[in-house]
Amino acid sequence: MVSRLVLILGDQVSPDIAALREADKGTDIVMMAEVADEASYVGHHPKKIAFIFAAMRKFAARLEGDGWKVVYTKLDDPKNAGSIPGEILRRAEEFGAQEALVTRPGEWRLIGLLGDMPIPVHQLEDDRFICSESEFQSWTAGRKSLRMEYFYREMRRKTGLLMEGDKPAGGQWNFDHENRKPAPDEVHHSGPMQFTPDEGVEEVLDLVEARFADNFGQLRPFHFATDQDQARRALSYFIKHALPRFGDYQDAMLNDNKFLYHAVISPYLNAGLLGPLEICQAAEEAWKNGDAPLNAVEGFIRQIIGWREYVRGIYFLEGPDYPRRNALNHQRKLPALYWGAETKMNCLSKAVAQTRDEAYAHHIQRLMVTGNFALLAGIDPHEVHEWYLAVYADAYEWVEAPNTVGMSQFADGGVVGSKPYVSSGNYIDRMSDYCKSCAYKVKKKTGQGACPFNLLYWHFLNRHRDRFENNPRMANMYRTWDRMDEGRRDTVLAEADDFLSCLSSGETV
Ligand code: FAD
Ligand code: DLZ
Ligand code: SF4
Protein backbone atom coordinates (compact mmCIF):
# COMPACT_ATOMS: atom_id res chain seq x y z
CA MET A 1 0.00 0.00 0.00
CA VAL A 2 1.37 3.40 -1.05
CA SER A 3 1.40 5.90 1.75
CA ARG A 4 2.75 9.07 0.15
CA LEU A 5 4.01 10.82 -2.94
CA VAL A 6 7.40 12.50 -2.64
CA LEU A 7 7.67 15.43 -5.02
CA ILE A 8 11.10 16.50 -6.25
CA LEU A 9 11.19 19.79 -8.16
CA GLY A 10 13.57 20.76 -10.93
CA ASP A 11 15.82 22.74 -8.59
CA GLN A 12 15.86 20.02 -5.95
CA VAL A 13 18.08 17.40 -7.60
CA SER A 14 20.09 16.77 -4.42
CA PRO A 15 20.41 13.20 -3.13
CA ASP A 16 20.14 14.31 0.50
CA ILE A 17 17.21 16.70 0.02
CA ALA A 18 14.86 16.93 3.02
CA ALA A 19 11.87 15.21 1.36
CA LEU A 20 13.97 12.14 0.51
CA ARG A 21 15.44 11.96 4.00
CA GLU A 22 11.91 11.97 5.40
CA ALA A 23 10.55 9.43 2.90
CA ASP A 24 10.29 5.67 3.12
CA LYS A 25 11.91 3.79 0.25
CA GLY A 26 9.69 0.81 0.88
CA THR A 27 6.31 2.50 0.56
CA ASP A 28 6.62 6.03 -0.82
CA ILE A 29 6.70 6.98 -4.49
CA VAL A 30 9.02 9.68 -5.77
CA MET A 31 7.43 11.82 -8.45
CA MET A 32 9.05 14.28 -10.82
CA ALA A 33 7.37 16.15 -13.67
CA GLU A 34 8.35 18.36 -16.56
CA VAL A 35 5.35 20.67 -16.77
CA ALA A 36 4.31 23.50 -19.07
CA ASP A 37 3.40 25.82 -16.18
CA GLU A 38 6.89 25.73 -14.67
CA ALA A 39 8.49 25.97 -18.08
CA SER A 40 6.50 29.07 -19.00
CA TYR A 41 5.75 31.27 -15.94
CA VAL A 42 8.40 33.40 -17.63
CA GLY A 43 9.87 32.73 -21.08
CA HIS A 44 12.92 30.87 -19.75
CA HIS A 45 16.07 30.69 -21.83
CA PRO A 46 16.09 27.37 -23.75
CA LYS A 47 19.46 26.45 -22.21
CA LYS A 48 17.94 26.88 -18.75
CA ILE A 49 14.96 24.63 -19.54
CA ALA A 50 17.23 22.03 -21.14
CA PHE A 51 19.60 22.09 -18.17
CA ILE A 52 16.76 21.59 -15.70
CA PHE A 53 15.02 18.82 -17.64
CA ALA A 54 18.29 16.97 -18.33
CA ALA A 55 19.32 17.21 -14.67
CA MET A 56 15.84 16.02 -13.60
CA ARG A 57 15.94 13.00 -15.90
CA LYS A 58 19.40 11.95 -14.78
CA PHE A 59 18.45 12.42 -11.15
CA ALA A 60 15.32 10.28 -11.56
CA ALA A 61 17.47 7.51 -13.07
CA ARG A 62 19.92 7.80 -10.19
CA LEU A 63 17.16 7.50 -7.60
CA GLU A 64 15.79 4.43 -9.36
CA GLY A 65 19.29 2.96 -9.30
CA ASP A 66 19.34 3.65 -5.54
CA GLY A 67 16.19 1.58 -5.10
CA TRP A 68 13.48 4.26 -5.06
CA LYS A 69 10.23 3.79 -6.95
CA VAL A 70 10.15 6.82 -9.23
CA VAL A 71 7.42 8.05 -11.56
CA TYR A 72 8.60 10.59 -14.08
CA THR A 73 6.42 12.68 -16.40
CA LYS A 74 8.04 13.98 -19.54
CA LEU A 75 6.83 17.25 -21.05
CA ASP A 76 5.38 15.54 -24.12
CA ASP A 77 3.64 12.74 -22.18
CA PRO A 78 -0.02 12.86 -23.39
CA LYS A 79 -1.23 12.38 -19.80
CA ASN A 80 0.85 15.31 -18.52
CA ALA A 81 -1.46 17.55 -16.44
CA GLY A 82 0.64 20.63 -17.26
CA SER A 83 1.22 21.89 -13.73
CA ILE A 84 2.80 20.67 -10.50
CA PRO A 85 -0.51 20.64 -8.58
CA GLY A 86 -2.19 18.87 -11.52
CA GLU A 87 0.52 16.22 -11.61
CA ILE A 88 0.27 15.63 -7.85
CA LEU A 89 -3.48 15.03 -8.14
CA ARG A 90 -3.07 12.79 -11.19
CA ARG A 91 -0.42 10.65 -9.48
CA ALA A 92 -2.35 10.61 -6.20
CA GLU A 93 -5.34 9.15 -8.03
CA GLU A 94 -3.19 6.73 -10.01
CA PHE A 95 -1.53 5.29 -6.89
CA GLY A 96 -4.21 5.93 -4.29
CA ALA A 97 -1.94 8.25 -2.32
CA GLN A 98 -3.62 10.43 0.30
CA GLU A 99 -0.80 12.90 0.88
CA ALA A 100 2.44 14.26 -0.51
CA LEU A 101 5.78 15.42 0.80
CA VAL A 102 7.90 18.14 -0.74
CA THR A 103 10.90 20.21 0.20
CA ARG A 104 9.68 23.79 0.39
CA PRO A 105 9.99 25.45 -3.05
CA GLY A 106 12.15 28.53 -3.57
CA GLU A 107 9.28 30.68 -4.74
CA TRP A 108 6.21 32.08 -3.00
CA ARG A 109 4.07 31.30 -6.08
CA LEU A 110 4.64 27.57 -5.81
CA ILE A 111 4.59 27.55 -2.00
CA GLY A 112 1.11 29.08 -2.26
CA LEU A 113 -0.12 26.61 -4.88
CA LEU A 114 1.07 23.60 -2.87
CA GLY A 115 -0.44 24.99 0.29
CA ASP A 116 -3.80 25.14 -1.40
CA MET A 117 -4.27 21.54 -2.55
CA PRO A 118 -7.24 19.24 -1.89
CA ILE A 119 -4.82 16.68 -0.40
CA PRO A 120 -2.26 17.59 2.26
CA VAL A 121 1.14 18.48 0.79
CA HIS A 122 3.65 18.71 3.62
CA GLN A 123 6.33 21.28 2.88
CA LEU A 124 9.60 20.56 4.68
CA GLU A 125 12.24 23.20 5.27
CA ASP A 126 14.88 23.28 2.56
CA ASP A 127 18.03 22.78 4.62
CA ARG A 128 20.50 22.88 1.74
CA PHE A 129 21.49 26.32 3.01
CA ILE A 130 23.88 27.35 5.75
CA CYS A 131 21.44 29.74 7.38
CA SER A 132 17.89 28.63 8.13
CA GLU A 133 15.00 31.04 7.74
CA SER A 134 14.51 31.26 11.50
CA GLU A 135 18.21 31.91 12.06
CA PHE A 136 18.06 34.71 9.54
CA GLN A 137 15.04 36.18 11.28
CA SER A 138 16.86 36.08 14.61
CA TRP A 139 19.83 37.84 13.02
CA THR A 140 17.57 40.64 11.77
CA ALA A 141 15.82 41.15 15.10
CA GLY A 142 16.48 44.59 16.52
CA ARG A 143 18.72 45.67 13.64
CA LYS A 144 17.99 48.95 11.90
CA SER A 145 19.81 48.01 8.75
CA LEU A 146 20.48 44.55 7.38
CA ARG A 147 23.93 44.94 5.89
CA MET A 148 25.39 41.83 4.32
CA GLU A 149 28.90 42.30 5.74
CA TYR A 150 27.81 41.64 9.35
CA PHE A 151 25.68 38.70 8.36
CA TYR A 152 28.65 37.29 6.46
CA ARG A 153 30.85 37.43 9.55
CA GLU A 154 28.25 35.41 11.42
CA MET A 155 28.34 32.81 8.65
CA ARG A 156 32.14 32.66 8.83
CA ARG A 157 31.92 32.01 12.55
CA LYS A 158 29.17 29.45 12.09
CA THR A 159 30.96 27.45 9.39
CA GLY A 160 34.52 27.99 10.66
CA LEU A 161 35.54 28.78 7.08
CA LEU A 162 38.74 30.87 6.92
CA MET A 163 38.78 31.20 10.69
CA GLU A 164 41.77 31.00 13.01
CA GLY A 165 40.09 30.44 16.36
CA ASP A 166 37.65 33.32 16.64
CA LYS A 167 39.68 35.57 14.32
CA PRO A 168 39.41 35.79 10.54
CA ALA A 169 42.30 34.23 8.62
CA GLY A 170 44.83 36.86 7.56
CA GLY A 171 43.52 39.27 10.21
CA GLN A 172 40.72 40.69 8.03
CA TRP A 173 37.19 39.65 7.22
CA ASN A 174 37.20 41.13 3.76
CA PHE A 175 39.98 41.53 1.19
CA ASP A 176 38.03 43.45 -1.42
CA HIS A 177 40.56 46.29 -1.54
CA GLU A 178 42.95 43.80 -3.18
CA ASN A 179 40.30 42.66 -5.67
CA ARG A 180 38.53 44.42 -8.52
CA LYS A 181 41.40 45.19 -10.81
CA PRO A 182 40.54 46.59 -14.26
CA ALA A 183 40.27 44.24 -17.22
CA PRO A 184 43.53 42.38 -17.90
CA ASP A 185 45.17 42.39 -21.35
CA GLU A 186 45.32 38.62 -21.37
CA VAL A 187 43.21 35.94 -19.70
CA HIS A 188 44.97 32.66 -18.94
CA HIS A 189 41.82 30.59 -18.62
CA SER A 190 39.54 29.30 -21.33
CA GLY A 191 36.32 29.34 -19.30
CA PRO A 192 34.32 26.71 -17.46
CA MET A 193 34.61 22.97 -18.06
CA GLN A 194 32.36 21.88 -20.92
CA PHE A 195 30.46 18.62 -21.28
CA THR A 196 29.41 16.98 -24.53
CA PRO A 197 25.71 16.06 -24.38
CA ASP A 198 25.08 12.32 -24.22
CA GLU A 199 22.11 10.64 -25.90
CA GLY A 200 19.71 11.47 -23.08
CA VAL A 201 20.72 15.14 -23.03
CA GLU A 202 20.41 15.29 -26.83
CA GLU A 203 16.85 13.98 -26.50
CA VAL A 204 16.07 16.84 -24.11
CA LEU A 205 17.68 19.35 -26.46
CA ASP A 206 15.46 18.13 -29.31
CA LEU A 207 12.38 18.46 -27.10
CA VAL A 208 13.30 21.98 -26.00
CA GLU A 209 14.13 22.96 -29.56
CA ALA A 210 10.70 21.81 -30.72
CA ARG A 211 8.69 23.31 -27.84
CA PHE A 212 10.51 26.55 -26.98
CA ALA A 213 11.74 27.72 -30.37
CA ASP A 214 10.39 31.25 -29.81
CA ASN A 215 12.04 31.80 -26.45
CA PHE A 216 14.93 34.26 -26.29
CA GLY A 217 18.26 32.41 -26.21
CA GLN A 218 20.54 30.09 -28.10
CA LEU A 219 20.02 26.42 -27.20
CA ARG A 220 23.01 24.91 -28.95
CA PRO A 221 25.86 24.39 -28.39
CA PHE A 222 24.94 23.08 -24.95
CA HIS A 223 27.81 22.29 -22.58
CA PHE A 224 26.39 22.46 -19.06
CA ALA A 225 27.03 19.72 -16.53
CA THR A 226 23.78 17.86 -15.88
CA ASP A 227 24.62 15.52 -12.98
CA GLN A 228 26.44 15.68 -9.69
CA ASP A 229 29.59 13.99 -10.92
CA GLN A 230 29.98 16.40 -13.84
CA ALA A 231 29.18 19.41 -11.64
CA ARG A 232 31.89 18.33 -9.18
CA ARG A 233 34.38 18.03 -12.04
CA ALA A 234 33.44 21.53 -13.20
CA LEU A 235 34.00 22.80 -9.65
CA SER A 236 37.46 21.16 -9.37
CA TYR A 237 38.39 22.58 -12.75
CA PHE A 238 37.45 26.08 -11.61
CA ILE A 239 39.31 25.74 -8.30
CA LYS A 240 42.45 24.59 -10.06
CA HIS A 241 42.49 26.88 -13.09
CA ALA A 242 40.53 30.04 -12.29
CA LEU A 243 40.16 30.56 -8.54
CA PRO A 244 43.71 31.90 -8.05
CA ARG A 245 42.86 34.93 -10.20
CA PHE A 246 39.12 35.13 -9.34
CA GLY A 247 39.53 37.98 -6.86
CA ASP A 248 41.79 40.15 -8.97
CA TYR A 249 39.47 40.23 -11.97
CA GLN A 250 36.10 39.66 -10.33
CA ASP A 251 34.67 42.93 -11.69
CA ALA A 252 36.42 43.09 -15.05
CA MET A 253 34.61 42.80 -18.40
CA LEU A 254 36.04 42.07 -21.83
CA ASN A 255 34.60 42.13 -25.35
CA ASP A 256 36.16 38.81 -26.25
CA ASN A 257 35.95 36.91 -22.99
CA LYS A 258 32.61 35.96 -21.47
CA PHE A 259 33.75 34.14 -18.37
CA LEU A 260 37.14 35.57 -17.30
CA TYR A 261 37.97 33.81 -14.01
CA HIS A 262 34.38 33.26 -12.85
CA ALA A 263 33.17 29.90 -11.60
CA VAL A 264 29.98 29.56 -13.67
CA ILE A 265 28.69 27.12 -11.07
CA SER A 266 25.55 28.97 -9.98
CA PRO A 267 23.20 26.83 -12.15
CA TYR A 268 24.62 23.70 -10.47
CA LEU A 269 24.52 25.12 -6.98
CA ASN A 270 20.99 26.50 -7.28
CA ALA A 271 19.59 23.29 -8.80
CA GLY A 272 21.21 21.21 -6.06
CA LEU A 273 23.96 19.42 -7.98
CA LEU A 274 26.49 21.08 -5.68
CA GLY A 275 26.18 22.20 -2.07
CA PRO A 276 27.43 25.53 -0.69
CA LEU A 277 29.68 23.97 1.95
CA GLU A 278 31.41 21.51 -0.37
CA ILE A 279 32.20 24.40 -2.73
CA CYS A 280 33.57 26.62 0.01
CA GLN A 281 35.56 23.83 1.62
CA ALA A 282 37.17 23.02 -1.73
CA ALA A 283 38.14 26.69 -2.13
CA GLU A 284 39.47 26.88 1.42
CA GLU A 285 41.53 23.73 0.82
CA ALA A 286 43.13 25.37 -2.23
CA TRP A 287 44.19 28.28 -0.01
CA LYS A 288 45.52 25.97 2.73
CA ASN A 289 47.54 24.07 0.14
CA GLY A 290 49.02 27.30 -1.18
CA ASP A 291 47.25 26.92 -4.54
CA ALA A 292 45.13 30.09 -4.34
CA PRO A 293 45.68 33.41 -2.53
CA LEU A 294 43.56 34.50 0.40
CA ASN A 295 42.03 37.53 -1.38
CA ALA A 296 40.62 35.26 -4.10
CA VAL A 297 39.38 32.55 -1.74
CA GLU A 298 37.85 34.97 0.75
CA GLY A 299 36.13 36.90 -2.05
CA PHE A 300 34.72 33.72 -3.52
CA ILE A 301 33.54 32.26 -0.20
CA ARG A 302 31.92 35.61 0.67
CA GLN A 303 29.72 35.39 -2.44
CA ILE A 304 28.42 31.99 -1.37
CA ILE A 305 28.09 32.02 2.42
CA GLY A 306 27.57 35.79 2.46
CA TRP A 307 25.60 37.15 -0.49
CA ARG A 308 23.80 33.98 -1.52
CA GLU A 309 22.58 33.12 1.97
CA TYR A 310 21.77 36.75 2.69
CA VAL A 311 19.57 37.26 -0.40
CA ARG A 312 17.67 34.08 0.39
CA GLY A 313 17.06 35.33 3.93
CA ILE A 314 15.78 38.64 2.55
CA TYR A 315 13.44 36.94 0.06
CA PHE A 316 11.66 34.90 2.71
CA LEU A 317 11.77 37.65 5.31
CA GLU A 318 10.19 40.26 3.03
CA GLY A 319 7.30 38.15 1.80
CA PRO A 320 5.42 37.45 -1.45
CA ASP A 321 4.92 41.08 -2.48
CA TYR A 322 8.68 41.68 -2.73
CA PRO A 323 9.03 41.14 -6.53
CA ARG A 324 6.27 43.73 -7.12
CA ARG A 325 7.91 46.57 -5.21
CA ASN A 326 8.64 49.79 -7.06
CA ALA A 327 9.98 52.30 -4.55
CA LEU A 328 11.23 54.69 -7.24
CA ASN A 329 7.99 54.45 -9.22
CA HIS A 330 9.76 53.54 -12.46
CA GLN A 331 7.26 52.83 -15.25
CA ARG A 332 9.12 52.68 -18.57
CA LYS A 333 8.67 49.48 -20.60
CA LEU A 334 11.66 47.18 -20.94
CA PRO A 335 13.27 48.21 -24.24
CA ALA A 336 13.57 45.72 -27.08
CA LEU A 337 17.35 45.83 -26.87
CA TYR A 338 17.10 43.52 -23.82
CA TRP A 339 15.68 40.94 -26.21
CA GLY A 340 18.49 41.37 -28.69
CA ALA A 341 17.26 44.34 -30.77
CA GLU A 342 20.14 46.35 -32.16
CA THR A 343 21.80 48.94 -29.95
CA LYS A 344 24.81 51.17 -30.53
CA MET A 345 25.78 50.87 -26.86
CA ASN A 346 28.52 48.29 -27.03
CA CYS A 347 28.44 47.34 -23.33
CA LEU A 348 24.73 46.49 -23.50
CA SER A 349 25.03 44.82 -26.85
CA LYS A 350 27.82 42.55 -25.54
CA ALA A 351 26.11 41.73 -22.24
CA VAL A 352 22.81 40.87 -23.94
CA ALA A 353 24.48 38.87 -26.75
CA GLN A 354 26.38 36.76 -24.25
CA THR A 355 23.22 36.28 -22.22
CA ARG A 356 21.44 35.06 -25.36
CA ASP A 357 24.29 32.69 -26.22
CA GLU A 358 25.20 31.33 -22.79
CA ALA A 359 22.27 31.99 -20.40
CA TYR A 360 25.09 33.52 -18.36
CA ALA A 361 26.59 36.89 -17.59
CA HIS A 362 28.76 37.56 -14.59
CA HIS A 363 27.79 39.70 -11.65
CA ILE A 364 29.17 43.03 -12.84
CA GLN A 365 27.61 42.66 -16.27
CA ARG A 366 24.26 42.03 -14.56
CA LEU A 367 24.68 44.80 -12.00
CA MET A 368 26.61 47.57 -13.73
CA VAL A 369 25.61 47.13 -17.37
CA THR A 370 22.08 45.73 -17.85
CA GLY A 371 20.97 46.56 -14.30
CA ASN A 372 22.56 50.01 -14.15
CA PHE A 373 21.05 50.98 -17.49
CA ALA A 374 17.55 49.82 -16.51
CA LEU A 375 17.75 51.77 -13.26
CA LEU A 376 19.10 54.94 -14.88
CA ALA A 377 16.48 54.75 -17.64
CA GLY A 378 13.65 54.22 -15.14
CA ILE A 379 12.46 50.83 -16.41
CA ASP A 380 9.60 49.17 -14.53
CA PRO A 381 11.45 46.95 -12.02
CA HIS A 382 8.92 44.14 -12.40
CA GLU A 383 9.71 43.89 -16.08
CA VAL A 384 13.40 43.95 -15.25
CA HIS A 385 12.81 41.21 -12.67
CA GLU A 386 10.99 39.00 -15.16
CA TRP A 387 13.79 39.47 -17.67
CA TYR A 388 16.49 38.32 -15.22
CA LEU A 389 14.31 35.45 -14.05
CA ALA A 390 13.91 34.28 -17.64
CA VAL A 391 17.32 34.68 -19.19
CA TYR A 392 19.83 33.19 -16.72
CA ALA A 393 20.32 29.49 -16.16
CA ASP A 394 20.80 30.10 -12.43
CA ALA A 395 17.61 32.14 -11.94
CA TYR A 396 14.99 31.15 -9.35
CA GLU A 397 12.96 33.81 -7.64
CA TRP A 398 14.47 33.44 -4.15
CA VAL A 399 17.91 34.44 -5.46
CA GLU A 400 17.04 36.52 -8.50
CA ALA A 401 14.45 38.88 -6.96
CA PRO A 402 16.57 40.32 -4.12
CA ASN A 403 19.45 40.77 -6.54
CA THR A 404 17.30 42.49 -9.16
CA VAL A 405 14.50 44.22 -7.30
CA GLY A 406 16.73 44.99 -4.31
CA MET A 407 20.40 45.27 -5.14
CA SER A 408 20.13 46.32 -8.75
CA GLN A 409 16.91 48.38 -9.06
CA PHE A 410 16.57 49.80 -5.50
CA ALA A 411 12.88 48.99 -5.90
CA ASP A 412 12.73 47.69 -2.31
CA GLY A 413 13.58 51.20 -1.09
CA GLY A 414 16.90 50.20 0.47
CA VAL A 415 16.39 46.85 2.19
CA VAL A 416 19.32 45.24 0.35
CA GLY A 417 21.44 48.25 -0.57
CA SER A 418 22.15 51.46 1.31
CA LYS A 419 22.40 53.32 -1.99
CA PRO A 420 21.49 52.59 -5.59
CA TYR A 421 24.12 50.99 -7.83
CA VAL A 422 24.30 53.69 -10.47
CA SER A 423 27.30 54.84 -12.42
CA SER A 424 28.17 56.90 -15.46
CA GLY A 425 30.11 55.43 -18.38
CA ASN A 426 33.34 56.06 -16.45
CA TYR A 427 32.97 52.95 -14.32
CA ILE A 428 32.30 50.73 -17.34
CA ASP A 429 35.30 52.24 -19.11
CA ARG A 430 37.56 51.59 -16.12
CA MET A 431 36.52 47.97 -15.72
CA SER A 432 36.22 46.89 -19.37
CA ASP A 433 37.40 47.34 -22.92
CA TYR A 434 33.81 47.91 -24.13
CA CYS A 435 34.08 51.67 -24.62
CA LYS A 436 37.03 51.44 -27.00
CA SER A 437 34.82 49.82 -29.65
CA CYS A 438 31.59 51.71 -28.96
CA ALA A 439 29.77 54.10 -31.28
CA TYR A 440 29.40 56.47 -28.31
CA LYS A 441 32.28 58.31 -26.67
CA VAL A 442 32.61 57.63 -22.99
CA LYS A 443 34.60 60.81 -22.39
CA LYS A 444 31.87 62.90 -23.98
CA LYS A 445 29.40 64.20 -21.43
CA THR A 446 26.99 66.02 -23.78
CA GLY A 447 26.47 66.60 -27.48
CA GLN A 448 26.61 64.31 -30.50
CA GLY A 449 27.98 60.87 -29.53
CA ALA A 450 27.94 61.44 -25.75
CA CYS A 451 27.74 58.17 -23.80
CA PRO A 452 24.09 57.65 -22.73
CA PHE A 453 25.20 56.43 -19.29
CA ASN A 454 26.75 59.87 -18.71
CA LEU A 455 23.51 61.66 -19.50
CA LEU A 456 21.20 59.26 -17.69
CA TYR A 457 23.33 59.20 -14.56
CA TRP A 458 22.62 62.87 -13.84
CA HIS A 459 19.02 62.51 -14.99
CA PHE A 460 18.55 59.76 -12.39
CA LEU A 461 20.13 61.78 -9.58
CA ASN A 462 18.16 64.86 -10.50
CA ARG A 463 14.78 63.14 -10.68
CA HIS A 464 15.32 61.31 -7.37
CA ARG A 465 16.90 64.21 -5.52
CA ASP A 466 14.33 64.22 -2.72
CA ARG A 467 15.04 60.64 -1.89
CA PHE A 468 18.83 60.56 -2.16
CA GLU A 469 20.33 63.97 -1.52
CA ASN A 470 20.59 63.39 2.22
CA ASN A 471 22.16 59.96 1.80
CA PRO A 472 25.72 60.47 3.10
CA ARG A 473 27.07 58.02 0.51
CA MET A 474 25.63 60.17 -2.29
CA ALA A 475 26.39 63.64 -1.02
CA ASN A 476 29.50 63.96 -3.22
CA MET A 477 27.52 63.17 -6.35
CA TYR A 478 25.00 65.92 -5.60
CA ARG A 479 27.81 68.36 -4.81
CA THR A 480 29.36 67.67 -8.23
CA TRP A 481 25.99 68.14 -9.95
CA ASP A 482 25.35 71.38 -8.08
CA ARG A 483 28.78 72.74 -9.05
CA MET A 484 27.99 72.40 -12.77
CA ASP A 485 26.73 75.63 -14.31
CA GLU A 486 23.01 75.79 -14.84
CA GLY A 487 23.17 75.87 -18.64
CA ARG A 488 25.19 72.67 -18.66
CA ARG A 489 22.80 70.98 -16.29
CA ASP A 490 19.87 71.94 -18.52
CA THR A 491 21.67 70.55 -21.58
CA VAL A 492 22.38 67.24 -19.81
CA LEU A 493 18.75 66.87 -18.75
CA ALA A 494 17.35 67.84 -22.14
CA GLU A 495 19.66 65.40 -23.96
CA ALA A 496 18.82 62.65 -21.49
CA ASP A 497 15.10 63.30 -22.09
CA ASP A 498 15.65 63.09 -25.84
CA PHE A 499 17.52 59.83 -25.43
CA LEU A 500 14.73 58.37 -23.27
CA SER A 501 12.10 59.39 -25.81
CA CYS A 502 14.04 57.65 -28.58
CA LEU A 503 14.43 54.59 -26.37
CA SER A 504 10.71 54.43 -25.64
CA SER A 505 9.69 54.96 -29.24
CA GLY A 506 11.74 51.96 -30.30
CA GLU A 507 14.47 53.83 -32.18
CA THR A 508 17.88 52.19 -32.26
CA VAL A 509 19.91 53.97 -29.60
P1 FAD B 1 31.06 33.77 -9.38
O1 FAD B 1 31.31 35.21 -9.66
O2 FAD B 1 32.14 32.85 -9.75
O3 FAD B 1 30.67 33.64 -7.83
C1 FAD B 1 30.61 32.40 -7.16
C2 FAD B 1 29.24 32.07 -6.64
O4 FAD B 1 28.82 32.99 -5.67
C3 FAD B 1 28.14 32.05 -7.67
O5 FAD B 1 28.11 30.83 -8.35
C4 FAD B 1 26.90 32.27 -6.84
O6 FAD B 1 26.37 31.06 -6.38
C5 FAD B 1 27.40 33.06 -5.66
N1 FAD B 1 27.01 34.47 -5.78
C6 FAD B 1 27.80 35.49 -6.17
N2 FAD B 1 27.14 36.66 -6.06
C7 FAD B 1 25.90 36.35 -5.63
C8 FAD B 1 24.76 37.13 -5.34
N3 FAD B 1 24.74 38.45 -5.46
N4 FAD B 1 23.65 36.48 -4.95
C9 FAD B 1 23.62 35.14 -4.82
N5 FAD B 1 24.69 34.35 -5.08
C10 FAD B 1 25.82 34.97 -5.46
N6 FAD B 1 22.70 34.75 -8.95
C11 FAD B 1 22.00 33.60 -9.05
O7 FAD B 1 22.50 32.56 -8.63
N7 FAD B 1 20.77 33.56 -9.62
C12 FAD B 1 20.18 34.67 -10.11
O8 FAD B 1 19.06 34.61 -10.62
C13 FAD B 1 20.88 35.90 -10.03
N8 FAD B 1 20.35 37.06 -10.51
C14 FAD B 1 21.04 38.21 -10.43
C15 FAD B 1 20.46 39.39 -10.90
C16 FAD B 1 21.14 40.58 -10.81
C17 FAD B 1 20.49 41.86 -11.31
C18 FAD B 1 22.42 40.63 -10.22
C19 FAD B 1 23.16 41.91 -10.11
C20 FAD B 1 23.01 39.47 -9.75
C21 FAD B 1 22.34 38.25 -9.83
N9 FAD B 1 22.90 37.06 -9.34
C22 FAD B 1 22.17 35.90 -9.43
C23 FAD B 1 24.19 37.06 -8.63
C24 FAD B 1 25.42 36.78 -9.51
O9 FAD B 1 25.41 37.65 -10.63
C25 FAD B 1 25.51 35.34 -9.98
O10 FAD B 1 25.39 34.48 -8.87
C26 FAD B 1 26.83 35.04 -10.63
O11 FAD B 1 27.02 35.90 -11.74
C27 FAD B 1 26.89 33.60 -11.05
O12 FAD B 1 28.03 33.36 -11.83
P2 FAD B 1 29.28 32.53 -11.31
O13 FAD B 1 28.87 31.19 -10.87
O14 FAD B 1 30.33 32.60 -12.38
O15 FAD B 1 29.69 33.39 -10.07
C1 DLZ C 1 12.51 26.39 -13.63
C2 DLZ C 1 11.79 25.10 -13.82
C3 DLZ C 1 11.39 24.71 -15.10
C4 DLZ C 1 11.75 25.49 -16.31
N1 DLZ C 1 10.68 23.59 -15.30
C5 DLZ C 1 10.36 22.80 -14.24
C6 DLZ C 1 9.59 21.63 -14.41
O1 DLZ C 1 9.14 21.30 -15.50
N2 DLZ C 1 9.34 20.86 -13.33
C7 DLZ C 1 9.79 21.20 -12.08
O2 DLZ C 1 9.58 20.46 -11.14
N3 DLZ C 1 10.50 22.33 -11.90
C8 DLZ C 1 10.80 23.14 -12.93
N4 DLZ C 1 11.49 24.30 -12.75
C9 DLZ C 1 11.89 24.68 -11.38
C10 DLZ C 1 10.72 25.31 -10.60
O3 DLZ C 1 10.19 26.40 -11.31
C11 DLZ C 1 11.23 25.72 -9.21
O4 DLZ C 1 11.24 24.60 -8.41
C12 DLZ C 1 10.41 26.80 -8.55
O5 DLZ C 1 10.49 27.99 -9.25
C13 DLZ C 1 10.86 27.05 -7.13
O6 DLZ C 1 12.20 27.48 -7.07
FE1 SF4 D 1 28.70 51.62 -22.78
FE2 SF4 D 1 28.98 54.29 -22.88
FE3 SF4 D 1 31.13 52.71 -22.92
FE4 SF4 D 1 29.48 52.80 -25.02
S1 SF4 D 1 30.72 54.48 -24.25
S2 SF4 D 1 30.37 50.96 -24.08
S3 SF4 D 1 27.49 53.07 -24.03
S4 SF4 D 1 29.66 52.93 -21.25
Run of helices and strands: EHEHHEHEHEHHEEHHHHHHHHHHHHHHH
Average residue pLDDT? 97
Radius of gyration: 24 Å
Strand order of the largest sheet: 3-2-1-4-5
Based on Cα principal axes, name the global outline. globular
Portion of residues in beta strands equals: 5-15%
Going by helix content, strand content and strand pairing, the class is: mainly alpha
The N- to C-terminal Cα distance equals 65 Å
| Low-confidence runs | none
Largest sheet: 5 strands, parallel
Figure out the total of helices: 22
Q: Which cofactors or ions or other ligands sit in this model?
A: flavin-adenine dinucleotide, ligand DLZ, iron/sulfur cluster
Q: How many strands?
A: 7
Helix content: 40-55%
Structure explained in plain terms:
The structure is a single chain. With 509 residues, the chain is mainly alpha-helical. The protein is built from 22 helices and seven strands. The protein has helices at residues 18-22, 36-40, 46-65, 84-95, 108-114, 133-140, 148-159, 199-211, 228-241, 243-246, 266-271, 276-288, 294-318, 346-358, 363-377, 381-391, 397-408, 425-431, 452-463, 465-468, 475-483, 486-504; strands spanning 4-7, 29-33, 69-73, 99-103, 121-124, 163-164, 167-168. The protein has a five-stranded parallel sheet with strand order 3-2-1-4-5, with helices on both faces. Strand 4 (99-103), helix 5 (108-114) and strand 5 form a beta-alpha-beta unit. Helix 12 packs antiparallel against helix 13 (294-318) and helix 19 crosses helix 22 (486-504). The longest helix has 25 residues, at 294-318. The mean pLDDT is 97. Residues 345-347, 425, 428-429, 434-435, 438, 440, 442, 451-453 line the site of iron/sulfur cluster.
